[in-house]
Predict the 3D structure of the following.
Amino acid sequence: MGAGGFIGSHLVKRLKREGYWVRGVDLKNPEFSPTQADDWVIGDLRDATVVDRVVTADLDEIYQLAAEMGGAGYIFTGENDADVMHNSATINLNTADAAVKKGVKKIFYSSSACIYPEYNQMDPDNPKCTENTAYPAEPDSEYGWEKLFSERMYFAYHRNYGIQVRVARFHNIYGPEGTWTGGREKAPAAICRKVAETPQGGNIEIWGDGKQTRSFLYIEDCLDGVRALMQSDFSGPVNIGSEEMISINDFAKMIIGISGKNLHITNIPGPQGVRGRNSDNDLIREKVGWEPKFDLARGMKLTYEWVAKQVENRS
Ligand code: NAD
């Protein structure tokens, strides 16, 4: 579910490479390469009859990645709050119910680092995102509140109806074939685009003072984590992220360095979310034995090259 999106379309490819039969569902086709799903359904998962049709008793596993989603420019302005909460919650309510009714044994749900309380992420050098710090809850966006609700709902379905559940809290996943323009793009692709579009000696704008920190996880690592969690006995919720924290200005400098250009950075007011965020991978290391293989510079080189090619093809 959400198989036309960034992570979903990569996950379909991964599952096909591993030899599985895959059904993919989304409102739209994958944007950048044709789907590799064996059965492809364009459908709206807010519609319970669509969910009832695509969740069939012969499925071994469901990966639920569909969500009303975007970067800071989409999530943190407040303008999309009602859609974010209503649409994503409806998809999850329909999915949990259909999975149990059809007797599907196992479901993966993609939650987010955005569930973590704002009060633990005020200090850019010392954010706390350990799994057991989620409560008392105070996510800084309605997107985070919906994820927290849906995490709890999937675990309730496990307790009451026995379905096996795996919940991961993704931290900023990036890579080729991610949204890079149009308003829903996230920081890695957005900064790559700005750098690629700007001529030598020019200036790029970065939202906030640039001292806010984040970590970013390369898509291949994310998929390794999802598959390892799904095959493990551990249900989560667990972080799937990188512990390589960087300030946004240093991140922009890294991308400028990869481009080989000489550009200046101007910090301007803009939506930016919490001051600091970093994954804490102790739990997944211990329970699942997973950790990322790509460092940020390597993953960003691959991503910059891909975004730069899109920018070039557009102009
Ligand atoms: P994405 O927006 O590229 O993919 C989500 C897909 O869901 C889209 O293709 C969209 O069309 C589809 N969708 C939305 N509403 C739908 C509906 N009503 N019916 C059918 N399909 C619908 O996002 P992504 O980056 O691939 O993220 C996948 C999941 O991981 C999401 O649940 C997201 O919240 C979560 N997540 C992602 C990140 C990240 O950094 N990318 C971080 C934390 C959590």
Q: What stands out?
A: The mean pLDDT is 96. Residues 6-177+216-244+277-293 form a domain with the Rossmann fold fold (CATH 3.40.50.720).
